[in-house]
């Protein structure tokens, strides 16, 4: 058995690897961006606030130092701030640098002083922290030379430089984390998809007709469940495949015998018994019997394939089971009259059930046929149809007095084309399909059924039907 390759447009589909990696990297990039932006904002604002604190702190530091030291010491003290990148000077009211004593500092702060004076005039106070011309400035009025200004300024370029270095670091770290995320997502997706790829490779071998494949995956729960399901599908297909082969072999074998007989007897009639009415009738009877056997075989095969393919759905209705059963038993009357069979009947009157009448007829016909075929030398078959004590169920029992069925054979007899190895007490025209048909029909109805049998003590086949009032027939 081979399966047609599914026609999927692979080009329009994306691989699990691709999708997993794409979303993982996208998520990682978003996270990195978010973390870095927050970090960058926090660091730069803390750099600025540190600079502000430092500048305002200088005011207090210098004032304290000035009270205890002479101008030269203060001058040296102020110069020391340059190491931190902070320019600290004491300015006169006109903007000249009074301290530190430094030739290089002949810069005039007149503009700055007038700006400061304006600010003090507008807002009051004796100290001010402000940013101007890309630098952070601090000024406070001090009691030096009858009123001067302590002026400190810090270039914001230093902060921006630090910021830029940080930015470069962040970009480098981001690229590294992204690469790591890509590598990680690649290995995770590889691991995930390798399980699926293995299963798909096994399924491909299976589709090419290798039924000995084994679907294994124990790494992930979902794939383990899928493997398990695929293994049961494989078992079912394997079973059905071997059933098909067996059925074909058996059916062709069974078709051959009656066909050979029909041909042989037809030739005999043409060549030998054509003019002898007695012999001719006998030979014709053989042909009719063999043709009947062929019809039975073909019907059974058709029934099984129809039932298993689900073409024949069950069609339930309420009917008088008692009368229906008697109708079937009557069909076996010719056996009683011509071959001395006894069919003992114990049937309750007017029992009604709801089922597919035609199919249940086939079930009873097959079970009764088997009982007749396999019953003992007394040629007796017992049929009973009894209502249960609570009135809910009707039990049908068909018993024979034959050799019975071996315990190990009991579960097998319901299988398609099963025929016991035991030789039958009389030539039996079975196909090995009868009980399989019975099983499928009763399972489709969800009726309980079974067999009780012991070797040497005959067999009793039973089926439980629902008991319904005569008038009820609800779909
Ligand atoms: P068959 O056409 O061979 O009777 P069935 O499917 O009806 O096929 O039955 C399958 C096998 O079960 C039979 O070949 C026979 O070995 C066994 N079997 C069925 N009914 C009986 C019975 N009443 N007594 C003993 N064996 C039975």
Which molecules other than protein and nucleic acid are bound?
adenosine-5'-diphosphate
Cα separation of the termini = 40 Å
Task: Assess the beta-strand content as a share of residues.
Answer: 15-25%
Strand order of the largest sheet: 2-1-5-4-3
Whole-number radius of gyration? 52 Å
Mean pLDDT: 86
Secondary structure: helix percent:
40-55%
Number of alpha- plus pi-helical segments? 10
Q: What oligomerization state is this entry in? A: single chain
Folded structure, characterized:
With 475 residues, this protein is of the alpha+beta class. The protein has helices at residues 16-68, 71-80, 110-123, 156-207, 221-271, 277-308, 321-331, 333-339, 357-374, 434-445; strands spanning 86-91, 97-99, 127-132, 135-142, 148-155, 317-320, 342-347, 352-355, 380-387, 393-400, 449-453, 459-466. The strands form three sheets. Strands 2-1-5-4-3 form a five-stranded antiparallel sheet, sandwiched between helices. The chain has a five-stranded mixed sheet with strand order 7-9-10-12-11, with helices on one face. Strand 9 and strand 10 form a beta hairpin. Helix 5 (221-271) packs antiparallel against helix 6 (277-308). The longest helix has 53 residues, at 16-68. The model is unreliable at 421-427 (pLDDT under 50).
């Amino acid at each position: 058995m081979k399966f047609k390759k599914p026609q999927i447009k692979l080009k329009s589909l994306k691989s699990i690897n691709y999708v997993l990696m794409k979303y993982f990297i996208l998520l990682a990039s978003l996270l990195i961006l978010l973390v870095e932006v927050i970090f960058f904002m926090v660091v730069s604002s803390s750099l600025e606030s540190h600079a502000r604190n430092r500048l305002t702190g200088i005011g207090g530091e210098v004032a304290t130092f000035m009270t205890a030291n002479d101008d030269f010491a203060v001058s040296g003290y102020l110069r020391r701030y340059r190491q931190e990148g902070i320019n600290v000077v004491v300015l006169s009211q006109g903007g000249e640098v009074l301290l530190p004593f430094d030739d290089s500092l002949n810069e005039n702060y007149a503009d700055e002083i007038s700006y400061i004076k304006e600010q003090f005039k507008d807002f009051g106070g004796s100290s001010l922290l402000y940013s101007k011309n890309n630098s952070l400035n601090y000024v406070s009025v001090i009691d030096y030379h009858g009123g001067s200004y302590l002026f400190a300024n810090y270039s914001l370029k230093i902060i921006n430089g630090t910021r830029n270095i940080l930015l470069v670091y962040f970009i480098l770290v981001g690229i590294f984390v992204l690469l790591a995320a890509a590598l990680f997502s690649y290995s995770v997706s590889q691991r995930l998809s390798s399980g699926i790829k293995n299963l798909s490779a096994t399924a491909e071998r299976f589709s090419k007709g290798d039924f000995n494949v084994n679907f294994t995956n124990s790494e992930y729960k979902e794939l383990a469940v899928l493997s398990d399901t695929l293994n049961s599908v494989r078992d079912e297909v394997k079973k059905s495949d071997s059933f098909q082969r067996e059925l074909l072999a058996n059916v062709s074998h069974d078709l051959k015998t009656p066909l050979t007989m029909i041909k042989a007897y037809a030739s005999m009639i043409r060549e030998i018994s054509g003019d002898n009415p007695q012999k001719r009738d006998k030979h014709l009877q053989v042909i009719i019997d063999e043709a009947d056997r062929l019809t039975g075989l073909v019907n059974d095969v058709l029934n099984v394939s129809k039932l298993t393919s689900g073409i024949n759905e069950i069609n339930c209705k309420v009917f008088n089971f008692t009368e229906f059963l008697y109708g079937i038993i009557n069909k076996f009357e010719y056996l009683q009259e011509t071959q001395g069979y006894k069919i003992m009947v114990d049937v309750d009157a007017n029992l009604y059930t709801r089922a597919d009448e035609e199919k249940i007829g086939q079930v009873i016909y097959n079970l009764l046929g088997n009982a007749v075929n396999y019953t003992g030398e007394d040629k007796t078959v017992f049929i009973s149809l009894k209502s249960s004590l609570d009135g809910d169920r009707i039990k049908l029992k068909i018993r024979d007095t034959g050799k019975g069925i071996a315990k190990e054979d009991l579960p097998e007899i319901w299988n398609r084309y099963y025929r016991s190895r035991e030789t039958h007490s009389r030539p039996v025209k079975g196909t090995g399909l009868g009980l399989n048909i019975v099983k499928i029909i009763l399972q489709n109805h969800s009726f309980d059924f079974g067999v009780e049998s012991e070797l040497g003590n005959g067999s009793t086949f039973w089926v439980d039907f629902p008991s319904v009032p005569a008038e009820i027939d609800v779909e």
